[in-house]
Amino acid sequence: MVTVNEAGPAIGVIVVAAGRGTRMGTKESKQYLKLQDKPIVVHTLEVFERHPLISEIVLVTGEQDVDRCAVWVREYGIAKCVKVIPGGAERQHSVHHGLLHISTPWILVHDGVRPFVTESQITSCYEAAVEHGASILAVPVKDTVKQVDGEGWVTATPDRRSLWAIQTPQAFRRSDLLMAHEQAEQEGFIGTDDSMLVERLGVPVLVVEGSYSNIKITTPEDLDYAEWIRKKKEL
Ligand SMILES: Nc1ccn([C@@H]2O[C@H](COP(=O)(O)OP(=O)(O)OP(=O)(O)O)[C@@H](O)[C@H]2O)c(=O)n1
Ligand SMILES: C[C@](O)(CO)[C@H](O)COP(=O)(O)O
């Protein structure tokens, strides 16, 4: 672990970037690939660095990447990033590690590979959490979604009007998120996002509409799309 800057009060963000990027298939983990002239994760950090409500960022990376990420944090002037720490085997473990290094009463969790989140989306997500207890960014699904069994047979067609594709950031009270992670760990439950864990505690989670351009860079074709979005936004 490297302490890079002094901590401040208020809203903290855990940026998780400790994944291997298996679906991207590149030698370099996708969060470190360059978008224009900077690593993707740096673009993501810069959005939170610029946000007036954010006081503190904890960056979670692969153990072998902590030092080079700490160098980028200094080089790119991410002054709100107080710690760069190693993550765990699953995204959930990485968030849990991050949570142990941040003590603001409200926490946002964000994927390091979602560099196109906007200031207003972050604000809306945070404000909805403060008003309602917990909130997540999402967009309505555009396609018809089927449930399919292991042999390829359709078993159900859920009503599309009730289906949303979930994004980050996700905003929670720190106490709820910590309890949710501890409970999940005790029960051996692994979820694909943090709200799943908080829902299991019985805390209602409000969906706030995000945008289709807040993509998670996951597979090779997302890189071309990301470059196109970046050019449109002139990041
Ligand atoms: N053990 C892990 C796994 C994922 N992540 C982070 O969680 C975010 C969303 O995960 P995903 O897109 O699935 O990333 P990977 O796990 O790297 O991708 P893949 O599943 O294709 O291996 C990414 O910023 C990723 O770095 C993490 O911090 N720790
Ligand atoms: C948290 C998340 O980005 C919401 O869409 C997503 O669930 C991460 O999941 P992945 O399995 O790591 O892609």
Verbal overview:
The chain has one domain: Spore Coat Polysaccharide Biosynthesis Protein SpsA, Chain A (Alpha-Beta Complex). Helix content is 34%, strand content 25%. It is built from 7 helices and 12 strands. A hairpin with a 5-residue loop joins β9 (147-148) and β10. The mean pLDDT is 95. Ligand LQXTBERG binds at residues 91, 111, 166-168, 192-193, 216.
- What is the total tally of β strands? 12
Q: Which runs of at least 5 residues are low in confidence (pLDDT < 50)? A: none
CATH class identity:
Alpha Beta
User: Strand sequence of the main sheet, in spatial order?
Assistant: 1-6-5-2-7-11-8-12
CATH topology: Spore Coat Polysaccharide Biosynthesis Protein SpsA, Chain A
Category from helices, strands and their pairing: alpha/beta
Provide the residue-averaged pLDDT: 95
CATH architecture: Alpha-Beta Complex
Pathway: Isoprenoid biosynthesis; isopentenyl diphosphate biosynthesis via DXP pathway; isopentenyl diphosphate from 1-deoxy-D-xylulose 5-phosphate: step 2/6
Organism: Fontibacillus solani
GO biological process, one term: isopentenyl diphosphate biosynthetic process, methylerythritol 4-phosphate pathway
Site (Transition state stabilizer): 23, 30
Write the layout of secondary structure elements.
Layout (H helix, E strand, L loop, with lengths): L1 E2 L7 E7 L16 E2 L2 E2 H11 L3 E8 L4 H10 L5 E6 L4 H9 L6 E6 L7 H14 L1 E7 L6 E2 L5 E3 L7 E10 H14 L6 H7 L5 E4 L10 H14 L2
Parallel strand pairs: 2-5, 2-7, 5-6, 8-12
Antiparallel strand pairs: 1-6, 3-4, 7-11, 8-11, 9-10
Helix pairs in contact: 5-6
The structure holds cytidine-5'-triphosphate (CTP) and the ligand C[C@](O)(CO)[C@H](O)COP(=O)(O)O.
